[in-house]
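Morning run. Coffee first, then this:
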Amino acid sequence: MEDEKRRLIPLLVTLIAAAICVAINLIAKVEFGVFVSRLFITVIVFYIIGYIVYVVFCLALKNEKDTEETEENAESSEKGGAPKDDEDEDED
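And here it is:
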């Protein structure tokens, strides 16, 4: 469920940027050809920016999760317990 929400980040960033671009072009009364080319470039650029934000966000969450697991393993080994093994048992 959370991954599905995170996957919407590039789309939301793109839609917000496109809406702002449309509003600015309508207020400035730009001719149609220029309007379309600006909108196209805006959509491409902000989709790339949104995707970069998505990747960075996912990497940050992965690193945070790995750090928490490492701390849990260190605490359990200090207490004399066996460290947790998170590897899949299905791997051969």
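The helical segments are 2-6, 9-28, 32-78. Good start to the day.
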